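Good morning C.,

I know you're traveling, so I'll keep this short. The sequence:
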Amino acid sequence: MSNETNNENIAFQLGVTMRAMVKMFGKIFQTTDLDMTPEQFWILDMLSRSEDSIQSDLAEMMDKDKSAIMRHIDALEDKRWLARMNDSNDRRRKILVITKQGDDVLQQARKVVDTAMREITSGISGEEMTIFASVLQKIRGMADPKQNLE
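The tokens, ready to paste straight into the viewer:
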């Protein structure tokens, strides 16, 4: 297999794998009483790891348009898992804050995700996972340097 064909196959496999994982997490969340989508999980998870996030920050982190993110934020706010707070330095900015109820649900969802990830990676050694994570980080860094998160 030529290097070009191999690179195309890797890109294809990454896309297929990511879609399969999103589908799997969607099904898992449907079978629990969490009433959560994978996107809502990722938004809550990202917000829990950053301070003073706003809608445009999430849109950039998730590589989604602001209106799509707004729909997720509205749904999370309707569930009382997320609140918009005024920025003390700029009244036009709304900081997104996870509520206590949202944090409780996020902790439950993380346990579900961790269990699922342990199951789907059970045949992969720790060394292989370390190498895989390192390769993914290098690819991500080359594809989009500003998204090269540690």
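Safe travels,
E.
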